Amino acid sequence: MSLTLAIALGHLRRRKRQTIVSLLGVALGVGFFIAIAALMRGFQTYFVQQVIDVAPHVVMKDEFRSPDLQPAELAFAGGAVAVRGVRPREAVRGIREAGAKIEAIEAIRGVAVAPVLRGPVLFRYGARDVAVSLAGIDPVRERRVTNIEKDMTAGRLEDLRATANGVIVGIGVAQRLGASVGDTVIAVAPSGVTTSFRIVGLIETGVTALDEREAYVLLRLAQVILDRPNVINQIRIRLDDVRQAEPLARRLEAVFGYRTESWEESNRNVLALFVIQNAIMFSVVGAILLVAAFGIYTIISQVVHEKARDIAILKSLGFRAGDIQAIFLLEGAIVGLAGAVVGWAVGYGLIEVLAQIRFQSAGGPLRGREGFILAREAWTYLAGGGFALAAAMVAAFVPARKASRLNPVEIVRGAA
Amino acid sequence: MTALIAAENVSRILPGPQPVALVREVSLAVRPGEFVAVTGPSGSGKSSLLYLLGLLDRPTEGRILLEGKDTARMSDDALAAARLARLGFVFQFHFLLPEFTTLDNVLIPMRRLGRLSEREQQTRAKALLEALGLADAAGKYPEQLSGGMRQRVAIARALANDPAVILADEPTGNLDTKNASAVFDIFAALVGSGGRSVVVVTHDQELAARATRQVRLVDGRITYDSAAAVA
Ligand SMILES: Nc1ncnc2c1ncn2[C@@H]1O[C@H](COP(=O)(O)OP(=O)(O)O)[C@@H](O)[C@H]1O
Ligand SMILES: [Mg+2]
Fold this sequence. Notes:
The structure holds 2 protein chains of 2 kinds.
Chain A (H helix, E strand, L loop, with lengths): L2 H12 L1 H39 L3 E4 L9 H5 L22 H9 L4 E15 L2 E10 L1 H7 L6 E3 L4 H4 L3 E5 H7 L6 E5 L5 E10 L4 H4 L2 E5 H7 L8 E6 L5 H12 L3 E3 H4 L1 H39 L1 H10 L3 H36 L21 H28 L2 H8 L1
Parallel strand pairs in A: 3-8, 5-7
Antiparallel strand pairs in A: 1-9, 1-10, 2-3, 2-6, 2-9, 4-7, 5-8, 6-7
Chain B lengths: L4 E10 L5 E11 L4 E5 L6 H8 L7 E6 L2 E2 L5 H11 E4 L11 H12 L4 H14 L15 H12 L6 E5 L7 H16 L4 E5 L3 H4 L4 E6 L2 E5 H5 L1
Parallel strand pairs in B: 3-8, 3-9, 6-7, 7-8
Antiparallel strand pairs in B: 1-2, 1-4, 4-5, 9-10
Helix pairs in contact in B: 3-4, 3-5
The complex binds adenosine-5'-diphosphate and magnesium ion.
């Protein structure tokens, strides 16, 4: 064992109780950090994964960020003309020259594209009406863009082709209609067109808002019922590298002008919430570690004060200022490290306890799950340990430097 | 022969609105094999002189030479290294580290210096303890020892790295006559056995007479030096 370590341990052993209290302070900070991080990161990653899995990464819509300029504004450009109360012309406008755009986007590497025509339709089954968002899809392409097949609880995507007028509905839609696979529902479009669809599959994404609203038919069929032949109003895109979604969306919007949203933009409010959650988590842990660091500062200051004689004798024996500083920094590091290790155990234990807790979530993106989603990530252990060690070293630094500067002559004189 | 440690016209003045002169214009060269006893009234600057000779303090005037080398230009770390390898301190109070056993206290300077292997360190530390009659105390903690034993442990620790000079500040101040006499026997044996020197501050004239050289300090100045008187 190194001499510095032996001296440092000797000091700490003399104040066991104080050392243990500070050590536990550090351990609590680290343990809570690991547990809270597992809880929050677990939910956040699960949520993001759900979103990324279910929805396309990028969607181009037949909308513009700013409304079209009105003729009056064009005619008097720069003049004091304001046109108020402008309403969108039509619900389903369509993306112009969609075929060419799809081809252009598809040429980008690591990108899959699917055209969609989406529009509001009323489903009627018996006496029940349910408003759905009908999506006309190309099954072959759609499969490459969204993961709807994974979420199908009944039927297959191919059944859309195999069955005439087949429709796949969200499980919530089916429940509200009281219909199930094999039943025929009547679809009423805003234009008044009425068609009968046969339910060939069910989808459960876990996101209630989707499950209670979505319905999928073949693109061609949607174009007929919505009365928009050859028109599509969404281009859905999936990327191999999901992190490229936002830059790609910005680029496509700049080139084509249509509003193009990445999954990050569509979920911006939730993601912002995560940032706040994380900030709160780090603040709480920071506060705990601050208290622990203060404890360490107190102990080491006391040791330096009480051990002034020993410091003087070590210096007279030939220890350099740096050697003395190292002793007390090491004491901080020992408390910090030991606290981190105990904290790892505390954090691990807390996670296991949380993992045992069972409950039913009523709905939302957690529907169907019976407990907490916990992310067991190695980095939280490293980060927690790193914070603890850093806090301990900072706390030890001031008293350690004071110790290194003690003048042995003054102390020896004072003692004699 | 070069002095092991020498003060040349050294003064140590504490700065302040009313400067205090601890040591004034002292010249003292300690040659190998010398056993120097420094006496003088309380407050005459004996301890201050010892801190200067021991490189724990720096003079405000004059210079301290360690084996012919001017220490004024050495860094604090270099002075610490010189203390570690060439000097040994014994204070009036034993100043042992309470967390360490007798043996470990003696090992501390050796471990810091790291010149010997761990085995050699153990062997040497045990030999030192035995030479000082402390063989049975090796595993004991300072609080389990008598005052005389503690002081002998401190001497053993001062000898750990085989220093050229031992500096002792009233090492017998807290000891009874028998133990005090034993400590002086040890010092006498140290100088007798080779090129080592001892500088010891004492109040006891009888013990001082057993040294090979007597120096008297009054008011920070040397008023008597037996070496100078003979010359
Ligand atoms: N920090 C200080 N401030 C003022 N006076 C001091 C200080 N340190 C020592 N002295 C004085 O310097 C003189 C020399 O002290 P010291 O070297 O300890 O003498 P001795 O060891 O011979 O008793 C004493 O009068 C002491 O009171
Ligand atoms: Mg004194």
